Amino acid sequence: MRGIQLSLNQTQRLRLQRALELLETLSSKASLNASVTVADNIPVNYEDGVLKGHGTTELDGEVVATVCGVVERVNKLVYVRALRARYKPEIGDIIVGRVIEVAPKRWRLEINFIQDAVLMLSSMTLPDGVQRRRTAVDELNMRSIFEENDVVCAEVRGFQHDGSLHLQARSQKYGKLERGQLLTIPPYLVKRRKQHFHHLEQYGVDLIIGCNGFIWVGERVEAKDDMVVDDHVNKSEQHSSKSRNWTSLEEQEQTYTPAETRQNICRIANAIRVLSTLGFNVTLDVIMETVYLSSSLNVEIHEMLGAEFCVLVAESEAERRSSSAKRKG
Amino acid sequence: MGSVKRKSVEDPSEEFTSPLKQQRDNGFAGVDEPVACVHDVSYPEGYVPRSSNRDSAQEDSKAPKEFPFALDPFQLEAIKCLDTGESVMVSAHTSAGKTVVALYAIAMSLRNKQRVIYTSPIKALSNQKYREFKEEFSDVGLMTGDVTIDPNASCLVMTTEIWRSMQYKGSEVIREVAWIIFDEVHYMRDRERGVVWEESIVMAPKKSRFVFLSATVPNAKEFADWVAKVHRQPCHIVYTDYRPTPLQHYLFPSGGDGLYLVVDERGKFREDSFQKALNALVPASEGDRKRENGKWQKGLVGKAGEESDIFKMVKMIIQRQYDPVILFSFSKRECEFLAMQYYLVSDIDTSYSHNIQVSNMLPLLKRGIETFSIGLNMPAKTVVFTNVRKFDGDKFRWLSSGEYIQMSGRAGRRGIDERGVCILMVDEKLEPSTAKMMVKGSADCLNSAFHLSYNMLLNQMRSEEGDPENLLRNSFYQFQSDRAIPDLEKQAKHLEEERDSMLIEEEDSLENYYCLLQQFKSLKKDVRDIVLSPRYCLPFFQPGRLVSIQCTGDDDNAPYFSIEDRVTWGVIINFERVKGLSEDIIVLNGSYIVYYPDDANKKPEDANYTVDVLTRCSVRRDQVGRKTVKIVPLKEPGEPIVLSVPISQIDSLSSVRLVISKDLLPLEARENTLKKVSEVLSRFAKEGMPLLDPEEDMKTISGHFQVQSSSYRKAVRRIEALENLFEKHEIAKSPLIEQKLKVLHKKKELTAKIKSIKRAMRSSTVLAFKDELKARKRVLRRLGYASSDDVVELKGKVACEISSADELTLTELMFNGVLKEIEVEEMISLLSCLVWQEKLQDAQKPRDELELLFTQLQDTARRVAKVQLECKVQIDVENFVSSFRPDIMEAVYAWAKGSKFYEIMEISQVFEGSLIRAIRRLEEVLQQLIQAAKSIGETELEAKLEDAVSKIKRDIVFAASLYL
C-alpha cells in the first residue's frame, strides 16, 4: 500500500487496508524473495556460465542489480524486471502516442519513453489505404494525415542504427484516434497480450491498451476494407489529395457521437482510472469487471472516482483473486 | 502513344505475325514453329473486370520504356498486362527474354514514382541484376545478406529471403511498393527454401501487383488462380515454349567416340539415331571393369595418360567449334577432378585456355546446378552433362526432365549462335526410357513445398495481426490440395463403378477359396523363411547342389493362383554376401560370368546373400537393346546362364549334388551341366526329388534349428490341413477357377485403392498442417518460447532473430550459457556445427576440447528433439542430433585463429566452395546472434560475438564473388 492518494474515512481506510493485505498474501511468495533493490547481490551459480541480462551488472565479480525489481531467470539468463519503470519498447508492441512535431518526412511522437518515437511517413499506411507515391507533394500534405497533438496508435518497429525508436502503422487499424479519451497510467500496469485492440460491442466503444501506458477509449470506428479491388494506382496525386479533403469534410458532418456512447466512454475511462489509482494490472477482464460493478451498483460515472467505489473495487478484486486461488488450490 | 510497339499491341492481327517475321528474317529460315504464346487470365471469385476508361487515360502517356529491338509476342502480351496495371505470370524458357518484362515493370513504376522490388533466389543473380538495372535506371538499390546499397532507392533488388524478413519486420518499403517482381518463381518447389516464396507471396501487401517470371511450368494457370484468390486481383498468364536459339540434343555414349543427334532443332525426336547411340555403348563386360561401388568415373575420367571420355569430347567440341562450353557435373568430387585435369592440360595445349575459366570456377559451386539452372547470365554455345545422376539430399536420382530443360537452356547465345548444342553423356546405367524421358519430357510441375518452421511461427505470432493459420489457409499447398478434391472424388467414383461392374459367379465361395489360398501362401512363405534363413541354409549352399528356384513370371505383377508354384531346377555354383548393390551388371568372376539383374523389388532381408545358380534362362533384347533375363523351365528354349538370385527366390534345396566342371566359361560346359540336371530330374521323376529335410538333415549341423522347430512343425501341419481343404473345396474343380481368381484379385486391389483415395480426400479437406501447427505451438510453450495465450516470450524473441541455423537448438545453447563461457575461437568452431550439414566419410575427430563442446551441442539438440517428439512433432531424434556435424570444427577454429586459407584446406578434407559457403553462413548466424544478445541485454556476449565476426570475416572467404 504505497500511499494511495485518496481521501478516505476511517472505515474505508480499514476496508481498503484489509483488501490490500489480502491481495498481498495471495501474490506469490517466490517473487517476494526474488525482489532486489539497487546494488543488491544476485546469487548465481558461477560454475556454469551466467548470462547477465537487463538490470544487472558485474561488480567485483558479483552480479549486482542496477534497478529495483524482481529477479527473473530463464535457463542461465538472469535479469531484473523493474517494478516501476518507465516504458521500455519492444518490437511489436502496440502503443498509443501523441504527435508533438511534424518534421521532414516524419512525425515525432511522445510515447512515455525516454526519447520521442519517430513515425516515418513511409512507415505509415495512408488513411484511405491509397498506395503511397514518393513525391514532394506527399510530404507537404503530411499535416492532412496527422497534426500536432493528434493521438496516434502505432506499432513499435524497432531501434534504428542511430538509436532512435521507430514506429510503424502497418494497416488500416492503426492511425489517428478521434472522438474519445486518452488516459495515461503507469506503463507497468499494462501486460503484453496477444490482443491490444478491443472492440466492446455492447458499448460501441474501441479500447486500445497501449503497452506504453497510454490507453485510448473512443467511439467505435469501422475499419475500412483495405481489400477494395478497385484501387487507385492510376489516380493522379492531386486527385487523391482532393478526395482526402472531401472525405474528411464528410466525416466532420458525421462526427456527432451519441450521448450514450459518450457516457460509456467515460464510464470505461473512469474504471481504468480507478484501477490505476489502486495499482492493479489493467487488462480487459478487470476493466470490464469494474464497469459491471459500477453499473450493477448504479454508481454514477462521476462517483466512480470517489473513495467509496475505489474501496469497493479493491474488495471485489481481492475476493475474486482469493476465490480463484482457492479454486486452483 | 505513337511508338511502334504500342501500335502492334493495339492491332491483334499484326501482333502475332510481325515479330514472327522478324524472327525469321534474323536467321534460320527453316524454323517453322509458331512463336506464339498462350495468354490466359485468372479472375478472383466475384471479380468484375473494370471498365477500360482509365486505361485509355493511361494510353495518353508515353510508354515507360521502349526497346531497341522488336519484342516477341509473349513479351508484348505480358507488357500489355502491365499497362493495364494487372499482375502477370510469365512462364518461358531461360534466355527467352523474360527480363524484358521485368525491365518494363521497373520502368513503369519509376515513371509513376512508385517503388518496385525485384527478388531472386540467389545472391549471385541479385548482384548481377543489380548491376544491370543500375546501368539502366540508376535509381536502384541492392539488399542481400552481405551488402546493402542505397536501401532508399525506388527500385530494390534483393533476395527473396530478405524480402520475406522485411515483410515480417514491417519495413516501410512494403507500403510503397507498387510492383513486386519474383524472378525464378519456380523455385517455390525447392524442398528447403521454397516455402519462402509462399510466405512472401501470401504476406505481400494487398495493393501491390506482381510480375512472376518462371521457367516453363505446365500448371502456370493453377499458380495464377492461387495468386488471384489470395490477393483478390486478376492475374494473367503468358506461357510460351519458344526458344530464341533452338537446341540440338546429342548423346555421347561412354566409351564411344561420336555424337548422335537425338533431338533436332525443331524438337523432333530421332528414334533411329537414339538407337544407334545406345548400340555404340561399349558394354562394360568387355572392359575390365570391376564391380566396385561408385567407381564408374573410372570410365569417364580415365586412367592417367589415357584419354578420358570427357577429354575426348571436349577436344571434339573444340574441333567442331562448339565452344564455349559449360560442363555440368553433379558430383563435386568430379568437378574438382575435371578442373584439375584442365589445369594440367592447359599447360600443354593452349586451345583449352577458354575452358580454364569455366572449369576453374566449378569447385566453387556448391550447387552448380541450381546456380546455373536459374537465369544467371553465363551462356555458352554448348552444354555438356557428364552424368545425369544427382544427389538429392538422401539418395541419388536421375535428373528430372524439368531440370534438364532448365539447364540445357544455357546452351546457345542469343544473337551469336545459330543454335545451341546440348550433349548428354550416357553410360549403360542410364535406362533408355529415362534418357528419352529426360530429353523429350515436359517441364516439372510447380508444386508447393510448404512446411512449417519455428522461426516462421514465432514471427507470425509476434506481429499483432499475424496468424499462422491464416498463412496456412492461404498457402499454395492448401490451394493445391483443395483443388485436388474434385479430382480425387472423380477417381474414387470411377474406381467404384469399375469395381461394381465386375460380376463374379459364386463370389462368396470363391472369396473363401481366395482367402484360403492367401493363407496357404503366407504359411508356405513362413516355412520357407525358416528353412532358408541364411543361418540354417548357408552350410548347404555347396557348389553342385541342385536347387529349385522360382521362375520369373511373364508378367511380374500378375500373381498366379494355383497351389503349385512355378519352379525349375538349377545348380548352385557359389554364394556370397552382397553390399547393397542394385545395378544391372555383369561381372567376370574367376571362372565364370555372373549376370546380376537389376532387381528393383529386392526385399531387404535378402540383401545379405545371393546365390549364383546355373540354370536355363531366356535372354531377350528389347528394341532399345536392353537385356532382360528370365528364368524358364529347363525344357523350354533358352541359354544356360549363371544367375545371381536372392535367397528368397529359392524354393527348396535338394539332397542331390552334382559334380560340376571347374571351368564354366565355355558354353558347352554349362550346357552339359544342365543336361546332367535334366537326367537327375528324370531319374527322380516318379518319387519326386529328394529334398533336404529341415528336421532330419539340417538339424545335425545347426542346433539352432531346434529353437524354431516347434513353429516350423506347426506351420507344416497347418499347410497339410489346408491342402486337404483345397481338395474338398466345392469350387476347386471349377474349370475357370484361375481366371475367376484373377478377377477377384483385381477387385480386391481396386477396393484397397479406393480406400487410400478416400483417406487422401479426408486429409485434404481439413486444414493442411493443422495438427503440426498445434504440435509445434505446444513445443514453443513447453520450451518457454511462448506463453499459453500465444504471446511470444523472451526466448521466443531471441529465436525470432535466428533464421540461418536451427533456431531452437541455437537459442537453447545460448540460454544455457554455453556460448558465454568459452573462448571466441571455440565458440566460432562450435557454431560451425550448426551450419555444416554434409556428411564426411572419414573426417578426423576434432581435438578433445572441441569434441567436448560438440557433445554439449548434441545434448542440447537431443533435448530439443525429445521435447518435440513428446509434443507429437514428427521427428527422428537421432537423425536430428546427427544432422549437426563436427567435421569442419578444426578448420574453422584455425580460420578464427588467423590461419591462411590454404592452411585450413589442408586440415579439412572438404571442398573449398563448401567451406567458404559454410563460413559465410556462419557469419550470418553470428550477425543474428548479435541481434539476439542485444535483445536480452547481455552486452558482454554481444561484444564477444562482434569480435567473432571480425575474426572470421576476412580475405578470400568474403571476397565478392558471383558464384556464391
TrEMBL record, chain A:
Residues 233-254 are annotated as: Disordered. It is found in: Nucleus. Residues 243-254 have a biased composition (Polar residues). This is S1 motif domain-containing protein. One of its GO terms (cellular component) is cytoplasmic exosome (RNase complex). Coiled coil: none annotated. Residues 90-170 form the S1 motif domain. PANTHER family: EXOSOME COMPLEX COMPONENT RRP4 (PTHR21321:SF4), PNAS-3 RELATED (PTHR21321). GO terms for biological process: CUT catabolic process; exonucleolytic trimming to generate mature 3'-end of 5.8S rRNA from tricistronic rRNA transcript (SSU-rRNA, 5.8S rRNA, LSU-rRNA); nuclear polyadenylation-dependent rRNA catabolic process; poly(A)-dependent snoRNA 3'-end processing; TRAMP-dependent tRNA surveillance pathway; U4 snRNA 3'-end processing. InterPro entries: Exosome_RNA_bind1/RRP40/RRP4, KH_dom_type_1, KH_dom_type_1_sf, NA-bd_OB-fold, S1_domain, S1_RRP4. Keywords: Exosome, Nucleus, RNA-binding, rRNA processing. It comes from the Eukaryota. GO terms for molecular function: RNA binding. Belongs to the RRP4 family. The keyword RNA-binding applies. The lineage of its organism: Eukaryota, Viridiplantae, Streptophyta, Embryophyta, Tracheophyta. It holds the Pfam family S1_RRP4. The keyword rRNA processing applies.
From TrEMBL, chain B:
GO terms for cellular component: nucleus. InterPro entries: Beta-barrel_MTR4, DEAD/DEAH_box_helicase_dom, Helicase_ATP-bd, Helicase_C-like, MTR4-like_stalk, P-loop_NTPase, RNA-DNA_Helicase, SKI2-like. SMART domains: DEXDc, DSHCT. Gene3D superfamilies: 1.10.3380.30, 1.20.1500.20, 2.40.30.300, P-loop containing nucleotide triphosphate hydrolases (3.40.50.300). GO terms for molecular function: ATP binding; hydrolase activity; RNA binding; RNA helicase activity. It holds the Pfam family MTR4-like_stalk. The keyword ATP-binding applies. It comes from the Eukaryota. Residues 52-64 have a biased composition (Basic and acidic residues). Residues 1-27, 44-64 are annotated as: Disordered. SUPFAM superfamilies: P-loop containing nucleoside triphosphate hydrolases. Residues 79-235 form the Helicase ATP-binding domain. The keyword ATP-binding applies. One of its GO terms (biological process) is maturation of 5.8S rRNA. Residues 309-462 form the Helicase C-terminal domain. Keywords: ATP-binding, Helicase, Hydrolase, Nucleotide-binding. This is DExH-box ATP-dependent RNA helicase DExH9. It comes from Escallonia herrerae.
